[in-house]
């Protein structure tokens, strides 16, 4: 079976650990720097597509802004499956959580505008839920689940709504619980997958909880769209149990159609996800032409253990694909997103020949590799279905068929040229907000719209509609920098795992290199080398932090490379006493642990050491929040003299916002041009973000206080750079955690956001490059 290629084949290289000069807690004894002779990881992908050949992100619109006037902003509201009007100007999305459909005007794709919602309570019952939508001329077809939790008696309908005035003009009973809908390219009919889904908490006789069979079985309904909506009629297409059994489908007596797609010949492709099958139906006649198994796949080189480590030595064996979304790649091939359900999921996508049922291409581990290369690996799903490919759409760009495959858990969409269905070619990765569900090409306007379903106001995750435009005509609105702005290379064909970058430091020996580090979202603790002479910036080496020869996990929030070799790490602890400066040799071995003064540690809360910088024999640190002994809004900057092991402390006045749940803190400190640069940020993100900035204070010449009970001198600060415009320029979700900053020897300032390992975060890492202040 063919294995997917992600751009060029991942390079085979020797592993490398960065070794600079050995250091110790005593007198440093520099050694020759072996780095020039050491091989480095290189990027397996050329990420730099010309503007004319890629998608540009134009806007990210949170759908809570489209809520009814009286609804509180924190009410959960999502965007799932979407459709677009024939002129390409209005996106219509389902919101099953709030039980309505929403309308967003994208006439100006860079400035989407909410046009309100239509509640299903106005169409039927307040407990009804929309599962899908489609547009047929001037009408919207809303697929409605009316089951209400009674899985043994599923029910549903379609409502036909006149788009102009949002009035219902017709309804058709479906006789079961529906899922997806697709309209034929010629507009003559619509196909609806009537799933009659299983109850995951029900235990059938002789089975386990959630097992099949759970009758009634599902089917497909075809609605002929001839004439006025009142004249539309429905046809039921049932599957032959014996044919399904002969094809090797799981539990053929209870088939559950999930997703439908229609080709130019009027053929309907249907995924039977829980049964691990695919069926092809002739739309005009309703004849089931074929039914075949989606088969199993063995995948190597993936992370399969939720152990806090990006360990890509795992594998899955003979696992059912259990495809979710399906799309026609051409009139004889379909592509499926193999999300999996109760028994399977192979973390990739597949192309099938519908005439034979044979696999002509499979992504293997490459989809998971994409997540690792771009810092979007989600460790909390490693044992389940990894990046969990769920959505899939096919469109045409510049006369070429293109597949768009969405990762529900790693929050991205991968773009592939499928001109040759037996050898798809990776082109681009597009970031989304949490839970990209609906993938909607708008080919008449060269647009692509992603609807994301995850929404949790308390965790500051909000569902959104993200708009992309293809081609150089959208370049001016496409955001700077493009995504990804930082990636990793590969060692022996395996991507360097990374994410949750909470620190940056210049490399004293190379003006075009930086160091960064992962925090405790991923273990073991590592320092990563970054080449900033290339675009995107490339993580090409890693140093594992060890104590007595054993790898350790540390919450590294600050990092400073010492000119004499090795590093200082600012390690944040869950309690004050756990905060410490850690001196590390160039090979990653811990040589010294430096505790904070006991009274300072006792006065710390859960937010402690956040940044560290080195200036000769002096080490500067930033504490994120106030000590309990200090006035509100005054954080501390610490000065540690290595020669005498003495600490002194200075005050820093934090900004304020009016948000009731917000707090402000420091997240980085940098020595530059005779001053200290400090990154200050709020806890807000998206359109709520207010404070993401770099401030400068003169390096103090007066002595600081030495105890927690002494009030420190508050240093005068000046704004060096407001980072909000830079973050907004990406046209993505404004990230909360601006965590790392460094001025490289090349005179440029670099800033990076911490993606929290995708826990309560979209996962996108923004790496900014600008001239130093």
Automatic annotation (TrEMBL):
- All copies of domain Choice-of-anchor I, residue ranges: 78-342
Q: State if Zinc-finger is listed as a keyword.
A: no
Can you tell which superkingdom this protein's organism belongs to?
Bacteria
Q: Where is the signal peptide?
A: 1-21
**Entry keyword annotation includes Zinc:** no
Keywords of this entry:
Hydrolase, Signal
Q: What is its EC number?
A: 3.1.3.1
State the Gene3D superfamilies in the record. YVTN repeat-like/Quinoprotein amine dehydrogenase
Q: Which InterPro entries match?
A: Choice_anch_I, Mesenchyme-surface_protein, Phytase-like_dom, Quino_amine_DH_bsu, WD40/YVTN_repeat-like_dom_sf
Q: Molecular function (GO) terms listed?
A: alkaline phosphatase activity
What sequence ranges are listed for the domain Phytase-like? 497-756
Q: What is this protein called?
A: Alkaline phosphatase
User: What does the organism's lineage look like at the top?
Assistant: Bacteria, Bacillati, Actinomycetota, Actinomycetes, Mycobacteriales
């Amino acid at each position: 079976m063919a294995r997917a290629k992600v751009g060029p084949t991942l390079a085979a290289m020797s592993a490398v650990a960065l070794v600079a000069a050995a250091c110790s807690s005593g007198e440093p004894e520099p050694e020759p720097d072996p780095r020039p002779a050491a091989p480095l990881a290189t990027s397996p992908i050329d990420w730099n597509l010309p503007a004319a050949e890629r998608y540009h992100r134009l806007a990210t619109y949170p759908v809570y802004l489209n809520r009814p006037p009286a609804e509180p902003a924190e009410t959960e509201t999502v965007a799932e499956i979407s459709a677009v009007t024939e002129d390409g100007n209005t996106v219509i999305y389902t919101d099953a959580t709030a039980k309505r459909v929403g309308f967003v005007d994208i006439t100006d794709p860079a400035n989407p505008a909410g046009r309100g919602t239509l509640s299903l309570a106005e169409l039927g019952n307040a407990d009804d839920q929309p599962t899908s939508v489609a547009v047929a001329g001037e009408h919207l077809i809303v697929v409605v689940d009316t089951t209400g939790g009674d899985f043994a008696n599923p029910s549903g309908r379609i409502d036909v709504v006149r788009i102009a005035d949002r009035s219902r003009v017709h309804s058709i009973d479906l006789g079961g619980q529906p899922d997806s809908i697709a309209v034929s390219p010629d507009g003559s009919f619509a196909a609806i997958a009537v799933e009659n889904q299983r109850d995951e908490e029900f235990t059938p006789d002789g089975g386990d909880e959630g097992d099949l069979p759970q009758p009634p079985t599902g089917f497909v309904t075809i609605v002929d769209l001839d004439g006025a909506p009142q004249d539309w009629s429905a046809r039921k297409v049932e599957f032959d149990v014996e044919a399904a059994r002969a094809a090797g489908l799981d539990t053929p007596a209870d088939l559950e159609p999930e997703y439908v797609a229609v080709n130019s010949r009027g053929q309907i492709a249907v995924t039977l996800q829980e049964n691990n099958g695919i069926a092809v139906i002739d739309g005009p006649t309703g004849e089931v032409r074929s039914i075949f198994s989606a088969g199993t796949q063995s995948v190597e080189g993936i992370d399969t253990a939720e152990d806090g480590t990006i360990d890509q030595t795992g594998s899955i064996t003979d696992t059912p694909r259990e495809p979710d979304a399906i799309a026609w790649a051409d009139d004889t091939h379909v592509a499926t997103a193999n999300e999996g359900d109760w028994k399977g999921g192979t973390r990739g996508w597949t192309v099938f020949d519908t005439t034979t049922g044979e696999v002509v291409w499979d992504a293997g581990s490459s989809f998971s590799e994409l997540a690792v290369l771009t810092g979007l690996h989600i460790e909390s799903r490693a044992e389940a279905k990894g990046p969990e490919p769920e959505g899939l759409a096919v469109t045409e760009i510049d006369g070429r068929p293109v597949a768009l495959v969405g990762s529900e858990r790693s929050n991205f969409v991968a773009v592939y040229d499928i001109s040759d269905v037996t050898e798809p070619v990776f082109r681009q990765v597009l970031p989304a907000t949490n839970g990209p569900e609906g993938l909607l090409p708008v080919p008449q306007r060269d647009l692509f719209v992603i609807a994301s379903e995850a929404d949790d106001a308390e965790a500051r995750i909000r569902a959104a509609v993200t708009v992309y435009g293809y081609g150089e005509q959208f370049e001016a609105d496409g955001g700077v920098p493009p995504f990804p702005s930082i990636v990793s290379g590969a060692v022996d064909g395996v991507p360097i795992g990374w994410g949750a970058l909470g620190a940056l430091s210049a490399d004293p020996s190379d003006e075009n290199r930086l160091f960064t580090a992962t925090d405790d979202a991923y273990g073991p603790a590592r320092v990563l080398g970054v080449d900033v002479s290339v675009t995107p910036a490339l993580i090409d080496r890693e140093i594992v932090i060890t104590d007595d020869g054993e790898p350790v996990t540390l919450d590294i929030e600050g990092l400073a490379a010492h000119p004499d070799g090795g590093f200082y790490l600012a390690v944040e602890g869950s309690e004050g006493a756990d905060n410490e400066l850690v001196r590390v040799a160039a090979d990653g071995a811990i040589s010294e642990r430096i505790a904070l003064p006991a009274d300072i540690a006792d006065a710390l809360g859960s937010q402690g050491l956040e940044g560290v910088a080195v200036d000769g024999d002096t080490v500067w640190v930033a504490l994120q929040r106030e000590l309990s002994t200090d006035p509100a809004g005054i954080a501390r900057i610490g000065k540690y003299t290595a020669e005498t092991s003495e600490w002194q402390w200075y005050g820093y006045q934090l900004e304020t916002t009016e948000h009731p749940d917000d707090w402000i803190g420091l997240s980085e400190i940098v020595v530059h041009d005779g001053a200290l640069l400090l990154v200050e940020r709020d806890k807000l993100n998206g359109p709520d973000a207010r404070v993401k900035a770099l401030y400068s204070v003169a390096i103090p010449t007066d002595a600081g206080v030495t105890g927690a009970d002494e009030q420190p001198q508050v240093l005068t600060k000046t704004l060096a750079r407001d980072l909000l415009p830079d973050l907004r320029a990406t046209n993505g979700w404004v990230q909360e955690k601006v965590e790392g900053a460094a001025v490289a020897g090349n005179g440029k300032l670099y800033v990076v956001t911490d993606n929290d390992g995708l826990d309560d975060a979209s996962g996108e890492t923004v790496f900014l490059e600008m001239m130093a202040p």
